[in-house]
Amino acid sequence: MLEALLRRESAVVTAALIVLILLAWLALLAGAGTGMSVVAMSGWWLPMSLPAGESWPWTPHYWLIAFVMWAVMMVAMMLPSAAPMVLLYARVVRRADQQAASAEAPLSIASFAGGYLSLWILFSILAVAVQFALERAGLMTMMMSSRSALLSGALLIAAGVYQLTPLKAACLEHCRSPAAYLANHWRAGPMGAWRMGLEHGAYCVGCCAVLMLLLFVGGVMNLVWIAGLSLFVAIEKLAPFGPKLAKVLAVVLIGAGGALIATA
């Protein structure tokens, strides 16, 4: 009977994750509140740069729109690769609740997922600040991508070098080992779940944040880059060959960045 309950609970959590991911992607396709066509932003027919010395008017409303855009994008991109961790946590906490005759499991599961996503929400604030600085410096096009070969090359090289660092390897290992993470970081109750989600989110940000900055190279709302980075992050975290792929990408990024700078 317990196994049947666990299967049913797992199906509910899986369905909730799928709905949340789909809603995030649909919101992204709708422009994530920017009022702009994401399809058009993924093409090359818009004017390539803002007029010299000008930037978008960064009113409080525009700051909010930019934050919502980044937050929705991070949910759409990062939640799929975190789903196995959330599902395993849900199974473990439900079993523990049944043994302790507790009814906290649904709240704990939501707290765990919320803690994880809140770290990416915080990253979104940082990303908006970086976007603001780049636009004010005249380094962004109307497609919200870098107009500077030097900047693009530097971002590519930085991302490639980071892929080879011990910090990246440590964060990736935590993301790739859900069972070990839960065993070593377990905390009971909804507040414990929130803290666990925060910690897992911190490892995930440490693993992927530099890669997310590559959106400034290809275009913040460029669907090709968004989908490509999302796919790479999922493969890197979930596939058996993920760590090897991370190193291959590092070489590609460093080479591409060097080539861009050489032609600048």
Labels describing this entry:
mainly alpha, 264 residues, globular, single chain, 11 helices
Structure description:
- The termini are far apart.
- This protein has one domain (2-30, 57-263).
- The chain has helices at residues 2-29, 38-41, 60-100, 105-136, 149-163, 166-175, 178-185, 189-212, 215-218, 223-238, 242-263.
- 77% of the residues lie in helices and 0% in strands.
- The chain is mainly α and 264 residues long.
- It is built from eleven helices and no strands.
Biggest beta-sheet profile: none
End-to-end Cα distance: 66 Å
**How many domains comprise the coordinates?**
1
| Strand portion | under 5%
Organism: Methyloceanibacter methanicus
Protein name: Metal-binding protein
Keywords: Membrane, Transmembrane, Transmembrane helix
Transmembrane segments: 61-88, 109-134, 200-233, 245-263
SSE order and pairing:
Layout: H1 2-29, H2 38-41, H3 60-100, H4 105-136, H5 149-163, H6 166-175, H7 178-185, H8 189-212, H9 215-218, H10 223-238, H11 242-263
Helix pairs in contact: 1-3, 3-4, 3-10, 4-8, 5-11, 6-8, 10-11
Short description:
This is Metal-binding protein. This protein has 264 residues and is an all-alpha fold.
